[in-house]
User: What shape does this take?
Amino acid sequence: HEPYSSHRDRINVRGVLLPSQESGCDEPSRGVHKRTSLGCTFDSLGSERYMLTEDNRAMRDIAQAVPYDVLYIMVNHERYGGGGINNLFCTFTSDNQWSEYVFVHEFGHSFAGLADEYYTTNVAYDGFYPEGYEPVERNITALADPAAVKWADLLTADTPVPTPWDKAAYDEMDAAYQEIRGEINDRIGELMRSGGDTAEIERLKEEGERLSLEHQREVDAWFAANPTQGQVGAFEGAGYMSEGLYRSQLDCIMFTKGLKPFCAACRRGIVEVIERYGE
Assistant: This one.
């Protein structure tokens, strides 16, 4: 995935396998607990889809089998989820329809220090980017000075900053989906904790995956028809904030699901980090 593919001569990938006693990982809000080598768990930081490990010693003991700069943990699981912490590690599940997307997205956090560009999904923290401060991440800005935007040299000619886009229509479309998604996840959790009907649980999981794909296809089609698609500007809505933070393009793999391109600011940021490692 670009820009990694055009810098593949600078990247080595090594895998280390340490089998766990059980497949999968912990899902506390669903009443699931597994004996695994790294103790990876959903519900990390209070977010049902966020998956991390807190066992740093076990992670480092496993990783020291090979030379490494960046750590990625693959968890054998069919559920959507993962996590990424800058300069520490990232995780993803291997068997979900969005696994490849999550792999690239979370690596953007851990390797390149990229920010999340989405703002309509529930997260475990409020005020992550305090008002009045410029975020350090390369791909979002508080835009205190529109004439000095971080990616000014990448702006599309004659594109206004801030850049108008039909934000209200997108917000309405995504809010409707997020409400349904939350209800399905809550119901799955209730049934699993109480030992509910297995067939109903599986039906709800499949329904959730189907709706996720349908919604993303709808969003992608909406983006494709938007006149600002492909332009580099400053689009309001980023970093978990609907207002006051801006991203460089209408869409990006750090904004919505799918193996889509990184925005211009992300691409440049990734290349900067790759070149720094290669110095």
